[in-house]
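Ex. 9. Protein: PRC-barrel domain containing protein.
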Amino acid sequence: MPIDSIWSYAPDLGPVEGRDLTGYTVVARDGTIGHVDRQADHHGMRHLVVDTGVWVFGRSLLVPVGLVASVEAGERRLTVSCTRAEVKAAPRFRTDSETMDPAYLTAVGDYYHRLPPRESTAG
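Predicted structure tokens for PRC-barrel domain containing protein:
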């Protein structure tokens, strides 16, 4: 995935742009991660802040929108194109101010960009 597309929804997702995904369940290739707590677009780097509940000890994770592989509006669920372990190993999200920190966002984008390419999980 090109590094600039990590911050943009895939064009084949349909009308996701501008949709409020807050509360949607986030599912990885191998299980549920949590739910979308909020969406942000700082410095042109669109991302979701995902509340993991007890899975990662109440920690939130930042997920670039380019990882979204499918959105099922009726089920209020979205699927990302990586595994739970890959999401958990991303640069740690500690404070809300990091969602506005270009250096942190760049580190997150670089991490996901280096992951092996995946086939779409949609379908």
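Check your answer against this statement. The chain is about 15% helix and 30% strand.
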